[in-house]
C-alpha cells in the first residue's frame, strides 16, 4: 500500500503508523530482531525522503531510532540521509503552498460566485498538477512511472 499512497503529501501519519507497527512486531530470535531493525530502518529511510506533512517528526524519530541502536552507525547513516531529508523538506515546502490552497472536500458542482474565484481555483489546481506530473520525486523517479507518485491527495 505504501508504494501506491506513500508518496502523497498527506501520507505522513501512514508512515508513522507503519513504523509503529514494525516496532511492535515480536522478535524471538536474534535473526528476527536483526531483520526487524533492518525493516524499521528501511521504512524510516523511505519516509524521510518523501515530502509529507510530518517530515520533521519522522526525521526526529529516525535520529532517535538510529542513536538508540548504535551511535557510530547513526553518525554515518544520518550524515548520508541529511541531504536527502533536506531535499525532501524543500520539495515539501514548495508543494505545501499549492496544497493548502486547494479545497479537496469541495464537490464537483458548477461554480458559484465570482469569475475571479473560479479562476483562482483553476489556477491553484493547475499549479498542483504541474508539480505532481513534472517534478521528480526525491529519489529521482518520475511520478508517471511505476513506483512513482500515483495518487495526489492532500
UniProtKB/TrEMBL annotation:
Q: Which GO terms describe its cellular component?
A: nucleus
Q: Does the keyword Nucleus apply?
A: yes
Q: Where is the protein situated, by its record's location annotation? A: Nucleus
What are the BP-aspect GO terms? mRNA 3'-end processing
Extract the coiled-coil ranges from the record: none
GO molecular function terms here? mRNA binding
Q: Does the keyword Transcription apply?
A: no
What's the domain of life for this entry?
Eukaryota
Q: Please report the name of this protein according to its UniProt entry.
A: Suppressor of forked domain-containing protein
Amino acid at each position: 500500500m505504501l508504494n501506491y499512497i506513500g508518496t502523497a503529501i498527506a501520507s505522513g501519519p501512514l508512515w508513522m503508523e507503519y513504523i509503529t507497527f514494525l516496532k511492535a512486531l515480536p522478535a524471538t530470535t536474534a535473526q528476527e530482531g536483526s531483520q526487524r531493525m533492518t525493516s524499521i530502518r528501511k521504512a524510516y529511510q523511505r519516509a524521510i525522503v518523501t515530502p509529507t506533512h510530518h517530515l520533521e517528526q519522522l526525521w526526529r524519530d529516525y535520529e532517535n531510532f538510529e542513536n538508540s541502536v548504535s551511535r557510530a552507525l547513526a553518525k554515518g547513516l544520518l550524515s548520508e540521509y541529511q541531504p536527502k531529508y533536506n531535499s525532501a523538506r524543500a520539495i515539501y515546502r514548495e508543494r505545501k503552498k499549492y496544497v493548502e490552497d486547494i479545497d479537496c472536500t469541495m464537490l464537483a458542482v458548477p461554480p458559484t460566485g465570482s469569475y475571479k474565484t473560479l479562476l483562482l481555483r483553476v489556477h491553484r489546481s493547475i499549479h498542483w498538477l504541474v508539480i505532481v506530473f513534472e517534478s521528480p520525486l526525491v529519489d529521482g523517479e518520475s511520478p508517471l512511472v511505476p513506483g512513482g507518485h500515483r495518487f495526489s491527495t492532500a
